[in-house]
Design a protein that fits this description.
- By secondary structure, this protein is of the alpha/beta class.
- The protein has three domains: about 290 residues, Rossmann fold; about 160 residues, Isoleucyl-tRNA Synthetase, Domain 1 (Orthogonal Bundle), CATH 1.10.730; about 90 residues, OB fold (Dihydrolipoamide Acetyltransferase, E2P).
- The protein has 22 helices and 26 strands.
- The strands form six sheets. Strands 1, 2, 3, 4, 8, 13 and 14 form a seven-stranded parallel sheet that branches. Strands 18, 19, 20, 21, 22, 25 and 26 form a seven-stranded antiparallel sheet that branches.
- α12 crosses α15 and α15 packs antiparallel against α17.
- It starts with a strand and ends in a 14-residue tail after the last strand.
- The structure holds ligand ME8.
- Ligand ME8 binds next to β2, α1, α7 and β13.
- The site of ligand ME8 has 22 residues, from β2, α1, α7 and β13.
Length: about 675
């Protein structure tokens, strides 16, 4: 008996599950279900990453304690995955006692090995990534994070360091000995080049906030959130039995954004804690990003799609499986892929309805009749061969962690099966009274369909169960130690019957399809670049809007109200200039406002209070080049908050974007 241990990243709780995080989780669930069908004792772990500055700040913004935020959001994650047909065996939270105990134990082991020392850290830190960067790795000018585009913060504090630099050679040797440690292959090369370029020791503790796991023996330090988070894969298996059974992980499935942490830091931490190469994770599987309208789906871009809402809209019975199918089929594993509702509706109608569902539908007329033993002619032999080929190719693809290719292979078989039915036309055979052939055809069809229900079960467990019900079969139930993969087409028990049921993928009526399409088509303004103005700019801090002669690229839903004409002199009286945000902070208990310092080309930057906090985090506006109205009368927001100017922004529905200005223009350049 083999074991199989698969993990998702543990998700940050500053966000709720969306189709992007669902993608990773569904991949893991599919791999686990596949391995379980092959007879493995499969264990699937997911959870939430709850510590760190990012979370502490998110809690502060909401005015609640980090633990309260963690409890609320973690519950949402835990409850969402089963709604997407995912069945994790365990859910680990980094704020749990079992995790804290485990991670402190790992720290102690590394420290006892002499690989942790106390020093001082000074460097650039991206809170979005919870990661350190060198200037070279950041986008210039402005030291902006390549992923979050926000300027990295300068961090200077006492810190414990992990001797990562001394693990470069051993890591390279490990990669050499385990060439498929990182997949896809190209990503392994990226990791190797990074290590070859030379590693630096890693700061692994922080003292400027306290939402984290205290460092053993020095509780004014909390552990670096990635040390804390990566350890989850080990701390979840603290009881000796599961430790012995499942460790090391067979595969860590991750997005390409966090590959470095998993392929470099994590094995190095484990090496330092005394694990031998054989006790290190077997594989890190990195996938691409799910995009929506061409942009990475993420909370900061406000372009996420709720997978549960999508599933419910597409089909109340099998919507979850449809979403799982489309995620696995349309996004080629490892590549970025765009989510589009047209693709989902298209695949629902074609791949699922016309190809798979139709095959079952075509034997409905024979429901209730007794099936005979197989009595194949050459066409039935071909039908079975196609199913066997599909099973073999799909297994190879699942083994290579490519659900996309597995589904492609299965659909080749399903299309061949439909072509077979077209050719043999069992309804015509019945009319001709050729009952021997009818029986041979229907039996062969029922048998191959049974094989296909097993093949799709890892991706569409509910569909598989519903179809099997109509085939008179129980749901696929994996048994440890028994390989249930249909390398051979199963044989029906003589005398078994088909049961006529409802179509599994009923056609959407036109209005329903249109409504779903409308619900899940991203509003253009939400995904278009920031500089595009779709309505006239709105003054941000609540003063009257300022008209601007900008040609709209997309039509606003309601025509903007026309204001009375003004003279050129009226317009010329406006002092509108290019400004650069040089400081940005939230204002306690004013959750809509940011307090900014904006350089508008004067001796000192101006203080501006802007009502943009719901649309922008402070780090997102820092360094931004924007349009500023400079001669508006100062506005008093109380408590000493006085705004000396106003930022220009455009809004469309709930979307608010600052009007950006090209980089070449220095602060103070007049806008006219
Ligand atoms: O990075 N497309 O957590 P996180 C595809 N806590 N996958 C996506 C995605 C998208 N648009 N958006 C998110 C963290 N993901 C750390 C991990 S593990 C020890 C700690 C998936 O909530 C993808 O797997 O930011 C990505 O790596 C992960 O969510 C990031 O989740």
């Amino acid at each position: 008996m083999s074991t199989y241990y698969v993990t998702t990243p543990i998700y940050y709780i500053n966000d709720v599950p969306h189709l992007g995080s669902a993608y990773t989780t569904v991949v893991c669930d599919v791999l686990k279900r596949y391995r379980a069908l092959r007879g493995d004792d499969a264990f699937f772990l997911t959870g939430t990453d709850e510590h760190g500055l990012k979370i502490q700040r998110a809690a502060e913004e909401r005015g609640i304690a980090p633990k309260a935020l963690a409890d609320d959001v973690s519950r949402v994650f835990e409850e969402t995955w089963p709604k997407l047909g995912c069945e994790p065996n365990d859910f680990i939270r980094t704020s749990s006692e079992r995790h804290k105990r485990g991670v402190q134990e790992l720290w102690r082991r590394i420290a006892a090995n002499g690989d942790i020392y106390l020093g001082h850290y000074e460097g650039l830190y991206c809170v979005g990534c919870e990661g350190y960067y060198t200037e070279k790795e950041l986008e210039q000018p402005g030291n902006r994070c390549p992923i979050h585009k926000a300027p990295a913060e300068v961090v200077k504090e006492e810190s414990y360091f992990f001797r990562l630099a001394s693990y470069g050679e051993r890591l390279l040797k490990f990669y050499e000995d385990h060439p498929s440690f990182v997949e896809p292959e190209g990503r392994m090369n990226e990791v190797k080049s990074f290590v070859t370029a030379g590693l630096q020791d890693l700061s692994v503790s922080r003292t400027t906030f306290d939402w984290g796991v205290p460092v053993p023996g020095d509780p004014k330090h909390v552990m670096y959130v990635w040390f804390d988070a990566l350890s989850n894969y080990w701390t979840a298996l603290q009881d000796p039995e599961s430790q012995a059974k499942y460790w090391p992980a067979s595969v860590h499935v991750v997005g390409k954004d966090i590959l470095r942490f998993h392929a470099i830091y994590w094995p190095a931490f484990l090496m330092a804690a005394g694990f031998s190469d054989d006790e290190l994770p077997r594989k890190v599987l990195a996938h691409g990003f799910l995009t929506y309208g061409g942009h990475k789906m993420s909370k900061s871009l406000r372009n996420t799609v709720s997978p549960v809402a999508l599933a419910e809209a597409v089909s109340p019975t099998v919507g979850v499986d449809v979403v799982r199918y489309c995620l696995m089929r349309s996004i080629s594993f490892g590549q970025d892929g765009d989510f589009s509702i047209d693709d989902v509706l298209g695949r629902y109608g074609t791949d699922l309805g016309n190809t798979f569902g139709n095959l079952l539908h075509r034997i409905h007329p024979f429901a209730g009749e007794t099936l005979a033993v197989a009595n194949d002619g050459p066409l039935e032999t071909g039908l079975r061969e196609a199913a066997k080929n599909a099973a073999r190719a799909a297994a190879e693809a699942f083994d290579a962690s490519s659900p996309t290719r597995a589904l492609e292979a299965i659909w080749v078989g399903l299309m061949a099966a439909n072509a077979y039915v077209d050719k043999v036309a069992p309804w015509a055979l019945r009319k001709q009274g050729d009952e021997t052939r009818v029986s041979a055809v229907v039996t062969a069809m029922a048998e191959v369909l049974e094989a296909y229900t097993v093949m799709v079960a890892p991706v569409m467990p509910k569909v598989a169960a519903l179809m099997r019900e109509q085939l008179g079969l129980a749901a696929v139930a994996p048994v440890v130690g028994r390989d249930a993969w249909p390398f051979e087409v199963p044989t029906r028990r003589e005398g078994s019957r088909l049961i006529k049921g409802e179509p599994v993928f009923p056609r959407h009526d036109k209005d329903v399809a249109a409504a779903i399409k409308q619900q899940f088509t991203p509003p253009k303004a939400e995904i278009t670049p920031v500089t595009m103005v779709t309505e006239k700019p709105t003054a941000v801090a609540g003063a009257p809007a300022l008209g601007a002669p900008t040609a709209p690229e997309t039509k606003p839903e309601t025509a903007p109200e026309t204001k009375p004409e003004i003279t050129y002199e009226d317009f010329a009286a406006i002092d509108l200039r290019v400004g650069v945000v040089v400081q940005a902070e939230r204002i306690p208990r004013k959750d809509r406002l940011l307090s900014l310092k904006v350089d508008v080309g004067e001796a000192e930057p101006r203080s501006i209070i802007a009502g943009i906090a719901l649309a922008y985090a402070p780090e997102e506006v820092l360094g931004k080049r924007i349009a500023v109205l400079c001669n508006l009368a100062p506005r008093d927001f109380g408590k000493g908050l006085i705004s000396h100017g106003m930022l220009m922004a455009a809004s469309h529905g709930t979307v608010l974007k600052l009007v950006a200005v090209p980089d070449e223009l220095p602060p103070g350049s007049p806008i006219k």
